[in-house]
């Protein structure tokens, strides 16, 4: 009997193949699956909209190897770009990969594609696009089809004729036709879960009235051709601005499918990060992002940060300072996102053969990760902290440290308080008196002095147990040892890179050269399941022996 059961179970496991994703919908600000459980989009962008109109990298690695590397880096989704004319101009759609590359003089690339991906090289371009989507599906990766531009080529500038409805290459009727065609083409493809209607609206013609007029038309057309997909709308000014939605909603005939997307780079604000004080810049730009887009979450719409990223060599100060700030806010808001970008290099970009992409997670030859410490840092954001159906766990607070992507970990008997996985955090309550109490106990975080380890204590009403969020960034957790002391101490990470200590608060004044990032923490909401099985010793430690150890 049990042997039979085992056999049944085994054959079930063999037959069972997780479906890449059934249709998604929205429940207030959350994207959810058919059972109502949150699905967090943790995507990476993959470019297929340049002159050759083929997904990048197929001259470097076999398609399936690329899909597998996307999975191994923890992404569950790809925002896959396409140029409008690929869908609307049959002369382009039926051009084979080989013909497209030879017409651009990309002879070496085509020889390499022949070698790495022989099955793709003589497919018509639109079929090659489909083959990539299908392979992503076979690897359980969701796909968002992103109409990135009309005329194939690098995007985006104010004057490239692709920026707004009515521009030289942006005929609204043709655009609606192209969206309809792509939506229909993928109406039986379960892993295509969303469509970004148009990337980065911009340029001198942009205006709010036409935005509503055409985006509503495009959304209706997509939904009519494929009612399964999420309909994702970009804002104005390179998708930096959705503020107009604060007083006028989009009118659609359908519900529970609408998502807004936002792009946020360091260079969205010029050189502000490098030339200002990081605390001030983080504070003011975060407020601006909340005014221009973040408010949508409170209005009950999902917000998808569909492009953000940095030069992963770590040499760009503007990018480096921005990253800690955006990761803090993205963790707190627990938004859906798509990193820019997957490709380590391009066949041909802006006239340059084989251009390297330093924002790409893959190396130039697409065979390894460009910067594994960068990936580690964003990895905790790849799973949801909150949302419907995730767990029965009572929501709690965690202290997230954007500089490492780690959280203040659950305190154990043997170790001082330290950074660790956000999946095994010290679950806290942040009380009205501003103490950080270990959930379900009476003990709380307490400062012991400059350079000293942070401990647990049981007297939570004294000054050393009150933690205020200070500085312009509101990311410093500050305390005072005694009520009368004038000096503040801030939560910090020791030079070992993991032990939680308190040190003099850094960079509170308007200093452009000072880097506060190690002292940046965000108190964020989480309902990830927490391990509850404390040993008796741990229990005693947590509840009785707090002051001895
Ligand atoms: C590229 O290949 C085409 C077709 O095989 C050939 O006619 C052309 O001369 C080649 N160009 C170069 C630069 O090798
Ligand atoms: C899918 O779209 C095609 C056109 O591309 C259409 O013929 C077909 O009826 C659609 N199927 C569904 C299930 O909507
Ligand atoms: C990865 O990023 C870190 C932090 O920005 C940087 O210090 C390091 O040099 C980078 N590594 C590589 C291989 O580029
Ligand atoms: C703190 O200051 C108050 C007056 O501001 C004084 O009454 C009290 O004695 C001081 N306490 C300590 C411990 O110095």
Structural description of this entry:
- Keywords: Glycosidase, Hydrolase, Signal.
- One of its GO terms (molecular function) is hydrolase activity, hydrolyzing O-glycosyl compounds.
- This protein is α/β, with parallel strands linked by helices and 549 residues long.
- Helix content is 29%, strand content 19%.
- The chain has 15 helices and 25 strands.
- It has helices at 2-15, 63-72, 84-88, 90-93, 97-103, 107-116, 125-138, 172-185, 208-225, 236-239, 272-275, 278-299, 317-333, 372-379, 536-543, and strands at residues 25-27, 30-32, 42-46, 77-83, 142-149, 192-196, 230-234, 258-263, 303-308, 336-339, 348-349, 352-353, 396-401, 406-408, 419-420, 428-430, 436-438, 444-446, 452-453, 455-457, 468-470, 476-479, 489-493, 500-504, 522-526.
- The longest helix has 22 residues, at 278-299.
- One 2-acetamido-2-deoxy-beta-D-glucopyranose binds next to loops.
**Strand composition percent:** 15-25%
CATH C-level class of the largest domain is Alpha Beta
**CATH-wise, what's the superfamily of the largest domain?**
Glycosidases
- Give the termini separation: 53 Å
**Arithmetic mean pLDDT:** 94
The biggest beta sheet, please?
8 strands, parallel, barrel
What labels describe this entry?
Trefoil (Acidic Fibroblast Growth Factor, subunit A), 19% strand, 25 strands, 2 domains, glycosidase, alpha/beta, hydrolase activity, hydrolyzing O-glycosyl compounds, Ricin_B-like_lectins, TIM Barrel, binds 2-acetamido-2-deoxy-beta-D-glucopyranose, 549 residues, disordered N terminus, eight-stranded parallel barrel, five-stranded antiparallel sheet, single chain
